[in-house]
């Protein structure tokens, strides 16, 4: 997930003169190989999710996803994303803004820190929070005295999810904002605009599609996160189970159809995300009909 | 004085961008900040705008010290090198930005934008976005946008740099006339001396963060005060051994010094073409360059090489040909100054007294 791939295929780019192109045979072979691979690795497993989910009929499917535990898991997943994504959006915009528009000490350290969650295994990320807030952790006794529950409850799940998804927005915005530079902001300042006016009227409109794209990626990961959340959740059914955890529990209990039915919910959420993402990309490409600024976009 | 800059310095890391610069600008003047790239011109302009703050020294606008006044409150208009138009706004909204930000009256905004659209010849383009405009049009939008809030001081950073040569010439004339019509004090940065000479009322020559000379283009051109200005302005060749040039052999100060000679100071031709053959030395044509409107000659005279112009109407000279070279005058340069010396042999051999 760390290296999100973005493509901007335009017609212009695919029409190439013969001498820089391959022969039809090579093209067909390459395309078939790519499609076969994609089918085997991506499409087939995804299709199997739905096949398995409906194996024992639509009734079982509906029953599985309307099961109180499943509904509660879905709610928890959405709630977690609803808290973690805005937090990371605010943080990401602030960090990208600070890094690309100002000169200050410790800038490189901040850039490195932003990448840290990508470098750390999600399970380790979960353990970090156990070490801090768990019963034997640094703040455990104090939290216990004050009756504050972080581990094995919503706050822990949100914390772990936020940690894991924290680079997405900032990483998406940084190259975009760095490429755009600060000239438009300076122009706005010379015309009398103050800090917030500059942000709302100049900076935000320039980054809005990149920002939306970052939010989508962040959201996809927030809803799908397993490792870190698994460590801090405690797997309390109907209370601290998110959808991915619920799938695992059902599977371990040999309720394959139910497990796949719930999994299909996650797949649907992912498909929805993809549709929105494609729309955003299409919209971004449409905004630059002459392709003048492509290349600045999503320079992964 | 409208603008006064006193002992301003600015350092980026170890790079001294501006060092101890002082100058004054009268109201309504169009000033050209001229100098080589990386010489501190843009930094100086940005200090005037408040986009950079000086490490030391003071900036005064209308007699008021503005060091701590943010760009928003300085009453300036700034035209950026790449225009920095707001990409997501159309021409109308770009021009109106400075007024909408001040929450000006809607009718007032419309009237002002319409006025500027007419002034800049952009009527009919108000709904276009910056990427749908040509370079020259974008430049005019940037100009209109900067003028909309009626600034007292207009600052332009390399305003013509990103425009192709032909349009640039038209825009220069247009800009000069427009600024004269509005009567706004303006400072523009350029590294192109033709542009500065043509457009500016007054030039400030800046090099390595220092102000070398200030004055009207003609004065700077004819009386450069420093060695740098003498070599930078005009098309100059540096002469390492000026004491060997005919007419300058007995100038003691030239011994070991250097001189700068502009092509227009040099007359090259066959013996009968030269007005004062006695003051001329023999030389050899090394190269002949076609420069469009005239020819440029590269001539070897003794140990020195000089450049000269020759009209296309005159008999052509060929490389290798022996010619007479008359040096009318030269600038003797030292580290500090540039002094013009006339050729003393240039007296009429047969004076006619009436």
TrEMBL record, chain A:
It holds the Pfam family BPD_transp_1. Coiled coil: none annotated. It is a multi-pass membrane protein. It comes from Paenibacillus mendelii. Residues 74-277 form the ABC transmembrane type-1 domain. The complex is composed of two ATP-binding proteins (CysA), two transmembrane proteins (CysT and CysW) and a solute-binding protein (CysP). The chain crosses the membrane at residues 25-51, 76-97, 109-136, 148-170, 211-236, 256-276. Keywords: Membrane, Sulfate transport, Transmembrane, Transmembrane helix, Transport. Its main location: membrane. InterPro entries: CysW_permease, MetI-like, MetI-like_sf, Sulph_transpt2. Part of the ABC transporter complex CysAWTP (TC 3.A.1.6.1) involved in sulfate/thiosulfate import. Probably responsible for the translocation of the substrate across the membrane. PROSITE patterns: ABC_TM1 (PS50928). This is Sulfate ABC transporter permease subunit CysW. It is found in: Membrane.
Automatic annotation (TrEMBL), chain B:
Pfam families: ABC_tran (PF00005), TOBE_2 (PF08402). Gene3D superfamilies: P-loop containing nucleotide triphosphate hydrolases. One of its GO terms (molecular function) is ATP binding. SMART domains: AAA. It comes from the Bacteria. Transmembrane segments: none annotated. Keywords: ATP-binding, Nucleotide-binding, Transport. Coiled coil: none annotated. Residues 3-233 form the ABC transporter domain. This is ABC transporter ATP-binding protein. It comes from Paenibacillus mendelii.
């Amino acid at each position: 997930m760390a290296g999100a791939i973005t493509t901007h295929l335009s017609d212009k780019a695919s029409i190439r003169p013969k001498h820089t192109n391959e022969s039809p045979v090579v093209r067909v072979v390459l395309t078939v190989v790519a499609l076969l691979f994609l089918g085997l690795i991506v499409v087939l497993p995804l299709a199997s999710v739905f096949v398995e989910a409906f194996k024992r009929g639509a009734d079982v499917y509906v029953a599985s996803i309307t099961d109180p535990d499943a509904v509660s898991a879905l709610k928890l997943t959405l709630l977690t994303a609803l808290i973690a994504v805005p937090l990371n959006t605010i943080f990401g915009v602030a960090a990208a803004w600070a890094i690309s528009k100002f000169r200050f000490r410790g800038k490189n350290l901040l850039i490195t820190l932003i990448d840290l969650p990508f470098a750390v295994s999600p399970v380790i990320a979960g353990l970090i929070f156990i070490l801090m807030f768990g019963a034997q952790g640094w703040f455990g006794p104090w939290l216990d005295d004050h009756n504050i529950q972080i581990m094995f409850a919503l706050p822990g799940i949100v914390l772990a999810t936020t940690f894991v998804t924290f680079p997405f927005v900032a990483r998406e915005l940084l190259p975009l904002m760095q490429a755009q530079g600060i000239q438009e902001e300076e122009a706005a300042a010379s015309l009398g605009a103050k800090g917030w006016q500059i942000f709302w009227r100049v900076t935000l409109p320039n980054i809005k599609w990149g920002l939306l794209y970052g939010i989508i990626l962040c959201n996809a990961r927030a809803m799908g996160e397993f490792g870190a959340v698994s460590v801090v959740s405690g797997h309390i059914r109907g209370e601290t189970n998110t959808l991915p955890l619920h799938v695992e529990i059902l599977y371990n209990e040999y309720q394959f159809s139910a497990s796949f039915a719930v999994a299909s919910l996650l797949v649907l959420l992912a498909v929805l995300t993809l549709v929105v993402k494609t729309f955003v990309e299409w919209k971004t490409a449409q905004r630059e009909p002459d392709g003048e600024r492509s290349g600045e976009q999503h320079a992964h | 004085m409208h603008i006064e800059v006193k002992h301003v310095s600015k350092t980026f890391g170890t790079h001294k961008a501006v060092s101890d610069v002082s100058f004054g600008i009268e109201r309504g003047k169009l000033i050209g900040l001229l100098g080589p790239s990386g010489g501190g011109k843009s930094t100086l302009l940005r200090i005037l705008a408040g986009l950079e703050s000086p490490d030391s020294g003071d900036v005064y606008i209308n007699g008021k010290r503005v060091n701590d006044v943010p760009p928003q409150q300085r009453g300036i208009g700034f035209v950026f090198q790449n225009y920095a138009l707001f990409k997501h706004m159309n021409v109308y909204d770009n021009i109106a930005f400075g007024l909408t930000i001040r929450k000006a009256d809607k009718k007032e905004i419309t009237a002002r934008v319409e006025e500027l659209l007419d002034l800049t010849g952009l009527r009919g383009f108000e709904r276009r976005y910056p990427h749908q405009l040509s370079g020259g049009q974008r430049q005019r939008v940037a100009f209109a946008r900067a003028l909309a809030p009626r600034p007292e001081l207009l600052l332009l950073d390399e305003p013509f740099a990103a425009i192709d040569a032909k349009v640039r010439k038209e825009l220069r004339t247009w800009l000069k006339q427009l600024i004269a019509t509005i009567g706004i004090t303006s400072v523009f940065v350029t590294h192109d001396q033709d542009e500065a000479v043509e457009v500016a009322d007054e030039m400030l020559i800046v090099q390595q963060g220092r102000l070398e000379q200030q004055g009207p283009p003609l004065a700077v051109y004819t009386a450069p005060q420093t060695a740098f200005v003498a070599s930078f302005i005009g098309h100059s060749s540096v002469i390492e051994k000026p004491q060997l040039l005919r007419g300058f052999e007995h100038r003691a100060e030239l011994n070991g010094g250097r001189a700068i000679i502009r092509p227009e100071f040099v007359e090259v031709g066959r013996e009968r073409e030269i007005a004062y053959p006695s003051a001329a030395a023999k030389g050899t044509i090394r190269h002949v360059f076609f420069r469009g409107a005239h020819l440029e000659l590269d001539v070897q005279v003794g140990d020195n090489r000089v450049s000269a112009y020759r009209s296309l109407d005159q008999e052509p000279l060929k490389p290798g040909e022996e010619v007479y070279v008359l040096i009318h005058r030269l600038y003797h340069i030292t580290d500090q100054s540039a002094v013009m010396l006339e050729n003393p042999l240039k007296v009429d051999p047969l004076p006619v007294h009436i």
